[in-house]
Amino acid sequence: MEDGVLKEGFLVKRGHIVHNWKVRWFILRQNTLLYYKLEGGRKVIPPKGRILLDGCTITCPCLEYENRPLLIKLKTQTSTEYFLEACSREERDAWAFEITGAIHAGQPGKVQQLHILKNSFKLPPHISLHHIVDKMHDSSSGIRPSPNMEQGSTYKKTFIGSSLVDWLISNNFAASRLEAMTLASMLMEENFLRPVGTRSTGAIRSGDLAEQFLDDSMALYTFAESPKRKMSSKEEISLSAVELSGTVVKQGYLAKQGHKRKNWKVRRFVLRKDPAFLHYYDPSKEENRPVGGFSLRGSLVSALEDNGVPTGVKGNVQGNLFKVITKDDTHYYIQASSKAERSEWIEAIKKLT
Q1: How far apart are alpha carbons 219 and 198 in whole angstroms?
Q2: What is the pLDDT of residues 103-124, one digit of tens each?
Q3: The whole model's pTM is what?
Q4: Residue of 82, 73, 41 lying closest to 335 (CA atoms)
Q5: CB 246 within 8 Å of CB 277
Q6: What are phi and psi of 120, to 5 degrees?
Q7: Which long-range contacts (CB under 8 A, 24 or more apart) does 150-154 make?
Q8: For strand 264-273 and strand 229-230, is the pairing parallel, antiparallel, or unpaired?
């Protein structure tokens, strides 16, 4: 990283005038968050815009967009609002942590507070579990159950663990993710919620109250009176359902070269095992369906030299390239945001080929 850079990488930003969503390259410095357009696989200089962090307020988690649960909201001193979407809960929280630190850089006490995790939690006396569940059922501001898939089976009217943790924090029922997990475990113990599917059910065997509920985008839960498992009929089982039934191993934003036009676009890549597939999604779209993907069985993955432009690659790319060759000899050229990130992706993919 360059001197003075606290964090950099891809985030999806909502436009100010037309509220569309576009991927931008963000660079966080002590007082400023800069963002750049990406053309031909390289960030365009000068920056497209800058967010002054002095006097900024940050909201994370931000639940203002139902189909975009991984948002950070920044509000500047001039009341300009910025909505930024990360590729995973972990990445969102890492950005929020660093941005909060940059906002409070002149206040050492505030920065120190960010590092303190509360290890005990008691429900405030004026709030009952019944009150929380009533709020969860609220049609406008509550948790909205929807169909979710785990290991090839679809479960109606469920929600994922990390979404409930976000909701509890956002509604001020908990001050940290650990508190929210403990509170969600209490809701299960009192039979307001129940786990659905193998991942969340398996966690119940843990002895620690805070570990019985999973802050996880793959763990499913439902209201206690709700759903039955709905097995897909033969007509509904498609190749994509099988592909998407694997366990998520890694996910993140990467730039990918198109096959026909050879232009570079940022996609959210999701690596799954059992079965081993690499899918990619268009982060500017709200529907959570892959726009492409391929099996990793029999595939080859390798880093490409950063000196010059490798054969098969078009555009003035920034480097950190790697290539995946599938079993049917299709070549995918992919660009990571750093050498370290490239190495992590290559190692993760190699384990599944």
Answers
A1: 8
A2: 887 555 554 554 443 334 555 6
A3: 0.69
A4: 41
A5: yes
A6: -130, 150
A7: 150/196, 150/197, 150/198, 150/199, 150/218, 150/220, 150/245, 151/197, 151/198, 151/245, 152/232, 152/237, 152/241, 152/242, 152/245, 153/197, 153/229, 153/230, 153/231, 153/232, 154/230, 154/231, 154/232
A8: unpaired
